[in-house]
Specification:
The protein has 295 residues and is an alpha/beta fold. It is built from seven helices and eight strands, in the order E-E-E-E-E-H-H-E-H-H-E-H-H-E-H. 43% of the residues are buried.
Length: 295
């Protein structure tokens, strides 16, 4: 199996670094959040999904991802010009597929909205006075109205992503989304003291610690179902493929742990073992789809 060769967009304009794209079996354009980039912070210790991909053919990816990217940022020409340029600008070319890591940072941003004067439909969590009955389990802490707002936002940005793809020579190329593994809200930041991300949100809303894991599981599950429903809507999102990670066993981090635990390097990022568990089968599915569509 071949390890994917990864380049930043700047390499394409640097003669000594530019890959010969025509010499690869698969030419991929990647965009997304820290699940495509976190390994760059500490390559000896961290990993990301792209690092762990393996293909039967030779493969290259031009990676435009940036830690903290949201889906809105990805399709905003003012905020992510390199990605847009490689699809519809001067640097445009026909890509065999688009790899997208999106939804996770959007979810974290939405969870970070505090209740102070913010109506329920504009936040994902409920205050203690708004909690539902205990029989609802972890769902008692979540705002269904807020989730609908989030869903509408994500769907609209995927609309924009499809339009961007179809505005250039990569029109109709397959786009691939992945799901996320279930994190444990805990005091485990990344390098340079960035994070944690989930823990401050559940603490701000007074959610009992015993329910932290259940709330995280429900949120990640809802995000996966939302992305899967988008991929299933072939009329609205043609050639969008979602890889469901829910059935892949990933070791949860220990409650209250402050560093690497289970398959996690910090609160929301997997270590190399965790990334490999998701990336290897996802890469196989990506290659299967591309080969099948080539005929």
């Amino acid at each position: 199996m071949n390890k994917i060769e990864i380049h930043p967009p700047s390499d394409l304009n640097t003669p000594d670094l530019a890959p010969n794209l025509g010499g690869f079996g698969l030419r991929l354009l990647a965009e997304g959040d820290s699940w495509f980039t976190v390994g760059a912070l500490n390559p000896l210790k961290n990993a990301n999904l792209l690092f762990e991909m393996r293909f039967a053919q030779t493969a290259v990816a031009i990676n435009c991802a940036t830690p903290g990217d949201t889906l809105r940022r990805m399709v905003d020409t003012r905020r992510d010009p390199a990605f847009v340029d490689l699809l519809v600008g001067k640097g445009k070319r026909a890509w065999d597929g688009l790899l997208l890591s999106c939804g996770g940072n959007d979810l974290i941003d939405a969870l970070g909205v505090r209740a102070d004067g913010v109506p329920l439909h504009l936040r994902l969590l409920r205050t203690a006075a708004e909690w539902g009955p205990q029989a609802d389990g972890a769902a008692r802490y979540l705002s269904d109205a807020g989730w609908q707002t989030f869903s509408t936002y994500l769907q609209a940005n995927l609309d924009a992503m499809v339009a961007l793809r179809d505005g250039g020579p990569s029109k109709g190329a397959p786009m691939f989304l992945h799901g996320y593994a279930i994190p444990t809200p805990r005091p485990a930041p990344a390098e340079l003291g960035i994070g944690p991300w989930l823990l401050p949100s559940v603490q701000a809303y007074g959610i009992p610690e015993i329910d932290y894991e259940a709330v995280a599981a429900l949120l990640i599950g809802r995000l996966g179902k939302l992305l899967a429903s988008c991929a299933a809507d072939v009329a609205r999102y043609p050639n969008l493929h979602f890889f469901d990670t829910a059935q892949i066993p990933v070791l949860r981090a220990a409650k209250g742990s402050t560093g690497e635990s289970g398959d996690w390097i910090n609160e929301i990022h997997l270590n190399r073992d965790g990334c490999r568990k998701l990336a290897v089968p996802w890469a196989a599915e990506i290659e299967r789809v591309i080969v099948a569509q080539r005929g």
